[in-house]
Amino acid sequence: MPETPFAPPAWVRAVLAVAGGLLVWLTFPDHGIHLAAVPGVALVGLALWGVRARVGFGLGMLAGWATFLPTLHWSGIFVGAMPWVALSTVQALYVAVMGAVLAAVQRPLLARGRVVLAALALPVLWVLQELVRGTVPFGGFPWARLAFGQADSPLARWAWLGGAPLVSLVVALLAVPLVLLVVRRTLRAALLVPVAVALGLTGLLLPVHAEAPEGSTPARIGMVQGNVPRAGLDFNAERRQVLDNHVTGTEELGRSGERLDLVVWPENSSDIDPLRNPDAAAQVQRALDAVDVPVVVGAILDEPSPEVSNASLLYEPGRDAPTARYVKQHPVPFAEYVPYRDFFRLFSDKVDLVRVGFAKGPGPQAFPVEGSAGGFSVVPTICFEVAYDGLMREAVHHAEDGGLPSVLLVQTNNATFGYTAESTQQLAISRIRAIEHGRPVAHVSTVGVSAVIAPDGSVAQPTELFTAAQVVGTFDARTGLTPSDRLGPWVEIGSALALVLLVVAGRLRGRRADKVDTSPKTKLESSARA
């Protein structure tokens, strides 16, 4: 079949962009159609093929809206449409900029006949887009990355080698043959599709195992999902009730006769400061007495004034005060503190719901626990922190330096997002982290979903939303670092270098491409100039 140019009209490109974004959305829980990501990325790539930068920006915006508006719908469930649309629009802007940069990189490559290199610019820029989106501003918001829709996919195993960025890169690379098949329509391009699929599935050969390796320490951990009186922003209007619920759940664990080494509570399980409030301290002591093992409590501390701290506290039997603490290092902007409050109040008075800002913690911690089968440590992270690559990597390195086999602990509170997919989306992120760092994860929420996650990302004993529950699991605490831990952000660095090489290749002389394929006078570009 002869090669033919690909230059669809403007409305077709717009449809492709929106359809691609919607397919990416469908990969995330609660839909979980993970394979939709590959054609989704391919459709976005086809929409952007051969356009000018400003047109690429507009099409990228459409693709971004189509992805983020439905994916992040939970962000406005109790605060209204304005914050939800604003957050989705900001996230879509990164895809829009990616579209503009992709167009600027691709056009000189296409003009020189380097079609394959032009197609490879798509996965390179997708990874860099996710990097920037998860970094700036205010520390970024790395939610809804391609990798986080692959927890049930064979591609998730690539996280062991290169973390979430490599999973995203592999997904986008698999889209490249589909793009080439459409734009070139040749047998050679068609043959690339099964080759790419085979290469993607080689991730199944990576040594990702749920079975406990030699040298691991079995840790019996009980997770308490206490539930809250009501869903919504006022979930903690009865703060003592939330605390009592977690004490009651711990007492039930004590009566169950289960052998336990540790009990963990979620974020916000005690919004009453147990270091300053005698009643709250007495309730924590009740829980300790009930199980006679250490308890990790998620608490809000009234320090350092005038700020507060979102903290994880390790209490041990026979001790009056916590023996270790972790303070959340990455408070969520507009939820736990409000930057430039006066400016953002012009758009929504909801910013004043955050009356007191949260302080940033000094660094990672690993809580040592003397279990019945030997010593181990738990490495706490709080809520959205699980989505940040560098923070999680630093925490694992810190635990490894401590010398004890470790379990990752993700404490979260999903009460403010109601019966939405936010909780299952977050659980999917924890599953990717388990593979990436080769460790089990205790994922515990005030309202669900809580679950036991094995180092291969598989899930056991998931709880229901807004239901009090206790989960007991054996977590094989492990030592050692995965290649992803050792190599760090190699995928992003490699992608940045690849982008430089693609720009250089676009300036090198080569054969002229088909004029129709690279002409700026497509209907979409003509309308943009008009």
List key phrases describing it.
530 residues, alpha/beta, six-stranded mixed β-sheet, globular
Care to describe what's here?
The protein is 45% helix and 13% strand. The strands form two sheets. The chain has a six-stranded mixed beta sheet, with helices on one face. A six-stranded mixed beta sheet has the order 6-7-8-9-10-11, with helices on one face. The longest helix has 31 residues, at 81-111. The chain is α/β, with parallel strands linked by helices and 530 residues long. It has helices at residues 10-25, 37-48, 53-71, 81-111, 115-133, 159-184, 187-201, 239-256, 278-291, 341-345, 389-402, 422-437, 483-487, 490-507, 515-518, 523-529, and strands at residues 217-225, 262-264, 295-301, 309-315, 324-327, 367-371, 374-382, 406-412, 441-445, 451-453, 459-460, 469-477. The chain is built from 16 helices and twelve strands. Residues 513-530 have low confidence and may be disordered. It is globular. α8 runs parallel beside α9 (278-291).
